[in-house]
Amino acid sequence: MSDYNQLPGITKSLFSREMIAKLGILTLLCIILAALFPTGTALELDYKVGGIWARKDLIAPFSFPVYRDQLEYERDVARVRQEIYPVFVRSSTEVADRGARFRALFNLIASVHSRTVRGTGDSLEIESLKASSEIPFSPDDWELLMTLGNQDRLGALKERVLWIGTKCWDVGILDRPKNSIKRREIAVRSGTAESIIRTEALYDADELMNVLDTDLGELYGRQPSMLSLANRIGVILIRPNLLYDQEATTQSEAHAIEAIPRTTGFVQESERIVSKHERITEEIRLKLESLQRARADRRGDENITAQYTGMFIHVLVVVILFGIYLALFRKAIFRSNRKLLLISILLLLQGVFAYVSREIETDLPVEFLIAVPVTSMLLAILFDSRVAFYGTVIVAFLVAGIRGNDYSLALASLVAGALSVYTVRDIRNRTQIFRSMGFILIGYAATIGALALERFTDPGRIAVQLSFGLINAVISPVLTYGLLFSFERLFKVTTDLTLIELGDAKHPLLVLLSEKAPGTYHHSMMIAGMAEKAALAIGANDVLARTGAYFHDIGKLVKPTYFVENQRGSRSRHARLSPKRSAEVIRNHVANGVKLAREYGLPEEIIDCIPMHHGTTLTEFFYRKALSDAEEAGDGETAADVNIEDFRYPGPKPQTKETGILMLADAIEARVRSLDDQSAQNLKETIDAAVRKRFEEGELDECPLTIKDLTLIREAFHRVLVGAYHARIKYPDAQKVRKPRRTRKKKSTDTS
């Protein structure tokens, strides 16, 4: 630690835990995004079929084959896999052994019958013979079989089962159900010969059971138990003789795939691939892709490492630009690793969308389903429109890079995302998110239309692209609405929407304040109006300023009658307390307010307003009273013995424009309320004096308010207070008002 403390300030900041966490987030983000980038040939695809080659003539530096389009080749592979015949091998072993197995089983049955009937064997020997049977017969089964032997029907059963087996074997019995075989035909190999047979002409286990049941039913139709036993003997003895050969099927599939051509031509060294200003056709595109692939193959494995390094640097450069912007112009966001992690997740979300759209094997324009407006709108709502616009630019670059440097997608994403930002920049309720649908569609439609006219795109293709843009325009607001609530809660981000909801007069704390401390409640409402207008005048967050004002004095709920605005009658609660104790009671409303705010789950931005609106100012009335009392005490205590820190608020000083505005509004409103002369000129002088006092005390030193801001704030306060304390007509006492005399109407003398 001693070595660490000796490091310069800049070096310390680089090795702080906060900075290490930031570097970790940056590194992980860049690694994941770089892994989503295409490798090999797709990386330099900054051209489109129908576009114009704007570079100089491209000459082949070496000879290389022209590879077919990858999607087309993969479709052929999929087609071959569907068309390949599953290979089954006809088992010669099963055919050779079938007679021996039949003879062995029925000879065993005959031997057991002979020993049992004639009594030539003891019970142990008979049981041993039964146990050696291929089929595990139950005692009831043996009893039935002995009956067959007595009636000389055992031979008939043997012949019938053998006949059924021979009939089915000759056709072929599959070792798996027919419905598990995708093709309607199979390849049957017998030795070196192979034949294609339709599966419906063969037997499987279910059909064998049906055959046994039908044919054996002719012998034992009236003996259900004997028929069941005979069926079981048939199923066990008549085994499948067409066995699936996975290895042979795989080899057959591999040979068929190898036969699919991978190339469509050949480019000779020094041959012109494309000329300057030439329109790019499908053939030229394949040549360009094949050139990149050939370059990668010639460089070997070393190129892979270099390519991944390049992709990492590519992502790093783009992301760092965003980081620099945040560090310079949005310091509050940059200082919060939680917010940086939130932004990183939003960037990764779009990276995954782009990667998935690239991996989908389709000719449809799925790239227009990449919901870049989701990130744009979330950044605008969670932070502000400038962060959102800058983030949209970064996301557009990353998405285009992952899609293979697709300029068209970058432009469409940027336009649609930027328009969506403008639709939610002044959002006041969550349903406003859905008004962005039309603007997102306009963004995609304008870009798609412009590029289509430029490249002579087929009208049908344009219609499909517009359809996908429409789907994106509908889906993006829905995703934004769903993700917004999760991000607000998970990352504890306070949005204007949250602040507006907190500012509802039905909030429990505001209800308590209006009931227990009505004077403080009225004061807070007045401060809210002043703070809102001042924030609007200087471009600060008016919603935060207003909502912060609502809750800035909630600590007074603990002892409301100790504050002058809540006192009733002429006697003050502080009359019985010493100045130091009174100051302690007054100062404690800050700590009590913070405690109440945390109990009710108010966000940190609102909690900051509670201590910062007082900063480190003095409770001047009680401090001066303490000085006066010390001078008059006559017991040796002097003013020098009064500790000024006992009368000072704990701070911190205002750190944001909104808390600075709140401090000034609080001080000014208290002064104006006590004025006898509330004329416009006197209000202006009072406002100027209060602002000057806070400025000279240094309470605004840590606040980003400028001199110009203070001028605008004073003017805004003046307009609000003049409107609130405007001169009113003094109506005379009703009893002193003389009733007007009634005048008698003269009779008309007109006789006309």
What does this structure look like?
- The protein has 752 residues and is mostly helical.
- It has three domains: 87-252, no CATH class; 304-493, Arp2/3 complex 21 kDa subunit ARPC3; 505-724, Hypothetical protein af1432, CATH 1.10.3210.
- The protein is built from 30 helices and eight strands.
- It has helices at residues 2-5, 9-14, 17-36, 70-83, 92-118, 123-131, 139-150, 154-171, 205-220, 224-237, 246-258, 282-299, 302-329, 331-335, 337-359, 372-382, 385-402, 407-424, 436-455, 459-490, 496-502, 508-516, 518-538, 542-551, 579-599, 604-612, 620-633, 657-673, 680-696, 707-724, and strands at residues 58-59, 64-67, 87-90, 185-190, 193-198, 242-244, 263-267, 272-274.
- The protein has a four-stranded mixed sheet with strand order 5-4-3-6. It has a two-stranded antiparallel sheet with strand order 1-8.
- A hairpin with a 2-residue loop joins strand 4 and strand 5 (193-198).
- The longest helix has 32 residues, at 459-490.
